[in-house]
Amino acid sequence: MTVVEASGVRKTYESEGVPVRALRGVDLVLEDGEFVAVMGPSGCGKSTLLNLIAGLDTPSDGQITLAGQSLVGKDENELARIRRAHIGIVFQFFNLLEGMSVLENVTLPAVIAGSSRKQAESRARDLLDLLGLADKAKSAPGVLSGGQRQRLAIARALANEPTLLLADEPTGALDTAGGMEVLELFRRLHREGQAIMLVTHDKDVAAAADRLVLMRDGRIESDGADGDGGDAAASTRTLAGG
Amino acid sequence: MSDGLRLLVGNELRRRWRALLMVALLAALVTGAVLTCAAGARRAHRAPARYLAAAAEPDAFVLGLPADTGAADLARLPGVRGAATYTLLATQPHGVGASDFFPLFAPDGPGAGRPFFTEPVVHGRRPDPARADEIALGEATARRLHLGVGDRLRLDTWSAAAAARLQDAGDVAPDGPPLSLRVVGILRQATDLGGREGDVAITPLTPAVLERHRGSIGLLDRVALVRLAPGASERFAAGLRDLAPGASVDGSFGASQIEAALRPPSDVVSTGLWALAAAMAVSGLVAVGLALARAAAAAQGDDAALRALAVRRADRIGRIAVPGALFAAGGVVAGAAASVLASPTMPVGQARLADPRHGVVADPFVLAAGAALGAVGVAALAVFAAVQATRSRRPAPVRPSALESRLTGVPPAVTAGLLLARRRGGREVTPARAAAAASVAAVVGVLAAVVFAASSSQLLVQPRLYGWGWDAAITGTETSDLDDGAVDPERVRGDADLAAAALISEGVGLTAGGRPTTGLVVTPLKGDSRLVLLAGRQLASADDALFGSATLRAAGARVGDTVSIGLGESTAPFHVVGEAVFPVRSDGGSSSEGVALSGDGARRLGFAGCGPDDECSDNVALTLRPRASLARVSARYADPGNRVGVRAPAPPAQAERLRQVRLVPWLLAGFLVVVAVLSLGHAVATAVRRRRHELAVLRCLGFTARQLRTVVSTQALALVLGSCTIGVLLGVVAGRAVWALVTGAIDLPPVASIPAVALLGIPLAVLALAQVAAVPPRRAAARLDPAEVLRRD
């Protein structure tokens, strides 16, 4: 099943009065269960692509379909509902709700999506257990380590059993051990069938994926799915000259 | 200012001018309101003197002036600074009874010095002295005659012969030529200002009226108006005795008496406005301080980076303080200017009537002192806020709230709203405090105003609150003292409309515990006439006494004690059975001073009733049966021929004076509401701005625009909900305390009225206002672009 299909996607926005062409015609297909890393230098448009797929932004041109539903022409509320059902997002800087407990951070998305509080909490406890945070359920996010905070963010992203897990530089704010911990978690989730799209500029992080998409100047330069990028590990080894 | 600081300040001004504009607006509002009230208080205090200066009221009247004595003769007497002579014409407005004194005077010769009767013109103009068909009336006179500018005043007149008989008999039909004068102006005379019951309005005629009708209309009397040097009244009286032995001096309508009558109500207004200005200054400074603290907290984000760049703390403080101080001081100056524009609204109450000029007035002292103090105050607050914002403190970890955890079944948007409303702890200066403080202040202010207004209204309509435990009293029409035998006790006892009646002897000279006090002796004629009690029980035996609260305090006694009470040489022990509110008349008296005894008790001291030469006075208190008509009872006992009247309770003058300041608490409440709405709006807007990251995360988690609006609404409600509860409790306490202070000052019992509807309605109104204040932030939250916010942050 196709999870994401983007075709001819362009995005231009204004920054201080100057038009910035962030995406210049992107075509990308992501199948169910795939683990894709989108890699490229800063400003290449990878985060913009992630925001468009998440329905946080709308393309200037082109088509994006998520789980069979077109995101183009939808208003903000419809995009929010689609996002609830199909998307989980993990940010570089966690973006946890600091005033809520660990358990509540994970419970909230499911409650927003319409689950009962009891069901949502039950699912949240399972996820915290899965991610090794069960003993921190009542703690504040502020007392967790960086790795733990990102694991909590991943748990929150998984709360609604999303069709696609989006991760924007998920290890960018972590030390090496924390980063490894998170990548290992992504690999585990992928093995269990979770579709993941990871955005990074770090080749070591990208190597965790089974498909690598390279971007430059708002375009996809190579895509492992087309056979020109190979698998992510091989591609990143090539890029590194290894 | 160093170049570095200038650069930092310039940057801050560019980035935060919108937020600082709100601070300036708040400072302008506070300054404008405070200075308007302060200037109004000074104008209210000066209003009587200003009126007298404008109206040129005389210091004394000379009655029975000989025909050959002119103003120039009087002006030569010692201490005289001006004089004018007038003749009283035998004329009366048509339809007004001959017994109703309605003096119409006309100048009968050239005056000396500055003219008299230059009262402010309220409508129209002054009459032309050369016109014999023009007149200006005082406001009360015009109302009484139902006349306005352009109407004609018809006057009956008496011939010289009839006028002579009129002075002797008092009931002579007018036989002179009728006059018709056109009303060309309405004046504000001293009698229009209230404060002196029974004063007679003098209506001056033009000299031309006297000239034209001197032969056809009788002349009743000649009077002179004199303006005296301070302290010259004795010398003038002595000189007048030599000049005109038959003339007499009457200073009871003079300028000093008018000022003495106008002074208390004007001072009530002045004091009320000063109190209002002080309350607004304090609450306003708190609001501005909190707004500056919010602005400082918003600028706090870059402080760590500047510290890392080794920017001196003084410059870091200056970076935050200078823009805040500049905008706030600008607001102060703008507010001072606005107070001049608002000056026509001041003063209020009777002082406004007395103030001869209602236009735009600048009070240089208030403007200079207010602007200087305000600018210094806000600058100090800005520096304080900046010092707080640049202190290095370790952020306290945020602890999850138990509240949200327990809100099972509550929509997530509501939970999130509660979360965002809560303080985040640590060094963050949160807007929640400002919003909560402003909401508490608004609820307290409005509730206190409601309690004040309801209590003062209650005081005016409930005679029990000024000691009238009965419905009416039979009194003498002239001295309030009934002549002996004026009322037949048997007739009262047999009156089916009366449930109770008692002979009340007031002003009996007693001592209580050795201290002089006034006694009130109640001798029942029929039924049970009850005094108003604050504590204890009614008089039941000859040993019982009721004390006023002040007298009880002065005697060092309490209800249940035995106190020695004396009348002349006679003393006897009495049992204090209660604390009473003594009846206060419209012309004054004390509700808390005195001792009440039963007739039998007073007889123990040898009291045998009030004689003609005694200082005490008798009247009969009447308590009507249900559905009995007071008018019918009044008609039954009123006998003007025998100087007997029936008087219904009338609020005492001190209660009436409260009307002068009835606007004051409402103005304060309104001010606090405006401050609360601004603070709340600013707080919620600031919270939305500073929590935009969290709102963006919520958007990423799937919140719709509507849910984000609910988040902000909940946040606004949460900010004021607790404040409303605290505000209601404090408001009731404050309202009662204020009323106790006011009634203590005017010597009336502190019975406060707390309308139940206000206890519920005010918090609901505040919650509604919170929603109104949250409308712009709600829109901002709904329009938030999560991708943009997360990209920037």
Descriptive keywords:
heterodimer, A: 242 residues, alpha/beta, four-stranded antiparallel beta sheet, 8 helices, globular, disordered C terminus, B: 793 residues, alpha+beta
Written description of the protein model:
- The complex is a heterodimer of chains A (242) and B (793).
- Chain A contains eight helices and ten strands.
- By secondary structure, chain A is of the alpha/beta class.
- In chain A, the strands form two sheets. Chain A has a six-stranded mixed β-sheet with strand order 6-7-8-3-9-10, with helices on both faces. In chain A, strands 2-1-4-5 form a four-stranded antiparallel β-sheet, covered by helices on one side.
- The radius of gyration of chain B is 35 Å and the shape is globular.
- Helix content of chain B is 50%, strand content 17%.
- By secondary structure, chain B is of the alpha+beta class.
- Chains A and B meet through helix 1, helix 2 and helix 3 of A and helix 13, helix 21, helix 22 and helix 25 of B.
Number of strands of chain B: 21
Structural class estimated from helices and strands of chain A: alpha/beta
| Cα radius of gyration of chain B in angstroms | 35 Å
Biggest beta sheet attributes of chain B? 6 strands, mixed
| Quaternary assembly | heterodimer
Basic shape of chain B: globular
Low-confidence stretches of chain A: 237-242
Approximately what portion of the residues of chain A adopt beta-strand conformation? 25-35%
| Strands of chain A, total number | 10
- Count of discrete alpha- or pi-helical segments spanning 4 or more residues of chain A: 8
Mean pLDDT of chain A: 86
Alpha carbon gap, first and last residue of chain A: 34 Å
Strand numbers in spatial order across the main sheet of chain A: 6-7-8-3-9-10
The average pLDDT value of chain B, as a whole number, equals 83
Counting H and I runs of at least 4 residues, what is the number of helices of chain B?
A: 25
Write the H/E string of chain A, N to C. EEEHEEHEHHHEHEHEEH
Structural class call of chain B reads: alpha+beta
**Largest protein interface, residues of each chain:** A-B, 35 and 35 residues
Shape of chain A: globular
